[in-house]
Write a structure and sequence with these properties.
The structure holds two protein chains of two kinds. By secondary structure, chain A is α/β, with parallel strands linked by helices. Chain A folds into two domains: 365 residues, Rossmann fold; 85 residues, 2-Layer Sandwich (GMP Synthetase, Chain A, domain 3). In chain A, 31% of the residues lie in helices and 26% in strands. A five-stranded mixed sheet of chain A has the order 11-12-13-14-15, covered by helices on one side. In chain A, strands 16, 17, 19, 20 and 21 form a five-stranded antiparallel sheet that branches. In chain A, strands 2-1-10-9 form a four-stranded mixed sheet. In chain A, a hairpin with a 7-residue loop joins strand 7 and strand 8. In chain A, helix 1 packs across helix 2, helix 2 packs across helix 3 and helix 11 packs across helix 12. By secondary structure, chain B is an all-alpha fold. In chain B, 50% of the residues lie in helices and 0% in strands. Chain B has four helices and no strands. In chain B, helix 1 packs antiparallel against helix 2. Chain B is globular. The chains are: A alpha/beta, B mainly alpha. Chains A and B meet through helix 5, helix 9, helix 10 and helix 11 of A and helix 2 and helix 3 of B.
């Protein structure tokens, strides 16, 4: 196999054409079918005028078609740009303009919503998959851009994180090896395409010749249906944000499910509460538990293998050790720096920002870490999640960790109010505000105890399942907003 | 308006979904509510608690599944089925 992200698909389509590549909505798609669909999308894009290096947006709910489209764009020499299927129109417009998207591939609902955005042609994904025109292969190299993922960043302006075939493939191969992926594996595809965890779901799985189990948007909102799906599809490798697992634990009716097919349970994107993981792990006692760490810029690059027996009584999990091919350094202020082949090429169209993100060849993560005596790296917090209160430096993540260790707390966000001088805790769960504050007072120095605890039915989440602290603060004064 | 032959009254649910959850957007009783872009997971939880309050029933976690809440009609059918238990 060579150095392009889509070569594994062609390889397996030749050697094991009938093997299952994708499962979606109880339908099975073989490697041969996925390869043919990707060829069709590629031919359609070329017929529409897409040239090597052109950006092609994918704006659709996850399905077999989105996976075929991802590979189709790459085959055509294009760069795929996944757009949050739930994004408001203004944000979509910003992204499409920022990276000069040539064409949008959309599902019917998204195509209708893009109506009137006349500066870019929209092609119905289903029609691209049915394309009959055949195109000649496009010459490409591993240093070509493969995809751009937009993240909000702490300022709220989207920035486009650019990965090449080389960086994407380095990550796909490393992570496939890390999880011991083999052809018999059935890997969950839970996160949306615009979130970096999908790179594992799609490319590590196809690299290994295994099967992608696409989890529909509907299933991600219905934990009891999701747990049904995991059982019915006999998922062997699970990968999601911790929140999805917390939802399965609290609302997934796991007592009625058999999750014994799970061989690897991996999570990333946010801090996992040991209590939640322990509850989840009781339903998958044989599964290897992997706490993955890494910003979109580096892909996941550190992993901790968590021992089931270690989960009792701890309040924080390590993020482990650097993965194969990764070199790490800890700066004097505790900031974690990462170097390796799987690191991004840069931010789209932002030379200064790209330059500022690196120290030599090391990417500066902005995450503050310490090392345990056994060498395991522990995440302390974000440098931008550190506030000064009454002269003390406070890690908001640390306060959250302590609050969420109280049994019955489902989720919690600790934020400063608009003045920046008072801590407030927003949470969902059955303990009363005074119980939560009492727990905080018993475990934290007084300057770290929130002034107020505000109980909600649930907390705002971003489309990728992370706590949306900006919206939580924004709606903070409105007690009726849940 | 379709003839659903439901025993429960869908109008409070319809009003809640359209006015509160969808900010005034009109939906047919058979429209797929859960497809991305319509209701997010926060809204799904609000929908479930509205059903509990309005129809005076407790919805156990294992009932919060796609087939019970995928549309107004499906939700109505679910409420009817729960009414039959009582």
């Amino acid at each position: 196999m060579t150095g392009l992200l889509d070569h594994a698909l062609a390889h397996w389509a030749t050697t094991t054409p009938d093997a299952e590549a994708v499962r979606f909505a109880a339908r099975s798609f073989s490697y041969a079918e996925l390869n043919i669909a990707a060829e069709a999308v590629s031919a359609r894009l070329i017929r529409e005028g897409v040239r090597p290096g052109d950006r092609v947006a994918i704006h659709a709910a996850k399905s077999f078609d989105t996976i075929a489209s991802v590979f189709g764009v790459l085959r055509a020499g294009g760069v795929y740009v996944p757009v949050d299927p739930a994004a408001p129109k203004a944000r979509i417009k910003t992204i499409l303009r920022d990276c000069g998207v040539r064409i949008v591939l959309a599902d019917p609902r998204r195509a209708a919503a893009l109506d009137g955005m006349t500066f870019v042609p929209v092609v119905a994904m289903a029609s691209a998959l049915a394309e009959e025109y055949e195109a000649d292969p496009v010459p490409r190299t591993s240093t070509d851009l493969a995809y751009i993922l937009y993240t909000s960043g702490s300022t709220g302006t989207p920035k486009g994180i650019c990965h090449t075939h080389r960086s994407g493939l380095a990550y796909a191969r490393m992570s496939a090896k890390l999880c011991g992926l083999r052809r018999s594996d059935r890997v969950s595809h839970h996160t949306p395409l615009h979130f970096d965890m999908s790179i594992f779901d799609i490319f590590a799985t196809i690299e290994a010749g295994a099967t992608i189990i696409v989890i529909s948007e509907m299933h991600t909102k219905m934990p009891a249906s999701l747990s049904q799906l995991v059982e019915a599809e006999a998922v062997t490798v699970w990968y999601s944000v911790p929140f999805a697992m917390a939802q399965l634990v609290s609302h997934g009716a796991l007592d009625k499910r058999d999750l014994s097919s799970l061989r690897v349970v991996m999570f990333a994107g946010e801090v996992m509460q040991p209590r939640v993981l322990r509850d989840f792990a009781t339903h998958a006692p044989e599964a290897e538990l992997l706490n993955a760490y890494g910003p979109t810029e580096t892909n996941h690059c550190l992993t901790a293998r968590i021992d089931h027996a270690s989960l009792d009584g701890v309040t924080a999990l390590p993020i482990g050790l650097p993965d194969e091919g990764i070199e790490m350094r800890v700066a004097h202020d505790g900031e974690l720096l990462i170097k390796g082949d799987q690191i991004m090429a840069g931010y789209w169209n932002e030379l200064t920002r790209t330059r500022d993100a690196f120290d030599g060849r090391y990417y500066k993560t902005g995450d503050i870490v310490t090392r345990r005596v056994d060498g395991q790296v522990m995440l302390v917090g974000r440098d931008d999640r550190q506030v000064k209160l009454r002269g003390f430096r406070v890690e908001l993540d640390e306060v959250e960790r302590v609050l969420s260790s109280l049994p019955g707390i489902e989720e919690v966000a600790v934020v400063t109010d608009k003045s920046g001088e008072t801590l407030n805790a927003y949470y969902a769960g059955h303990p009363s505000p005074s119980e939560l504050l009492g727990h905080a007072a018993a475990h934290l120095p007084s300057y770290m105890v929130p002034a107020e605890a505000i109980q909600r039915e649930a907390l705002h989440r971003t489309s990728t399942g992370k706590l949306d602290r900006r919206r939580i603060v924004e709606f903070g004064d409105d007690r009726s907003a849940a | 308006m379709t003839d659903l032959q439901l025993k429960c009254d869908l109008s409070p649910l319809r009003a809640y979904v359209q006015d509160t959850l969808l900010a005034g957007r009109t939906v047919a009783d058979t429209d797929e509510l859960l497809l991305s872009g319509m209701l997010d997971s926060l809204a799904v939880m609000s929908l479930v608690s509205f059903v509990e309050q309005t129809y005076a029933l407790k919805v156990p976690f294992e009932d919060v599944v796609i087939e019970n809440f995928e549309s107004l009609e499906a939700t109505g059918r679910y409420v009817d089925s729960r009414g039959a238990d009582a």
